[in-house]
Amino acid sequence: MRLPFSLLYLLAITGLLLTTACDDDDDNQPVNEPEVITTVRLNFENQATGNIQPFVARDPDGDGGQPPVIDDITLDNNATYIVRAEFLDESDPNDPEDITEEVEEEDEEHLICYVFGGTVFDNSIQQDEDGNGDPLGLETTMSTLNAGNGTLQITLKHEPDKSIADACSTGETDVEVTFDVTVQ
What is the spatial distance between Cα 103 and Cα 100, in angstroms, rounded to a whole number? Predict the structure, then answer.
């Protein structure tokens, strides 16, 4: 039995429509891939003296492999510091990339969170804001207490919900580092 040309044409078009109608539209969506962050640098500027101390955490081979190398932070007691955070991809030492610039450009999609362990810090006040007036955290003020030991954890969050009280519990973690802190 031979089908008429018009029926064959109609079947071909229907088959084509059925196969393309089920195509996943997500293929055309831009993908925001996570950044490779090998280095976190915290620059502490003592407000009384103007001295700037950089403290760095490096993990050049990323997760797994060799453990990260993390500086111990040593600060003055009863002092106030402006802390500026930087994020870098130094996986290719010949072509390091400053991820901080992307965090600034996409400020509404990022949040830097600081968590203190121990009793060496009094407080943290984020100084900078994103385009909506919500906290960003690339620049923050921290005050130390009396001499002692503790920790400072810094986390860069991607797409957190900044409208809730605990925004740091939302979104994806781009990088998280814990520094040991000594206040003397």
Answer: 5
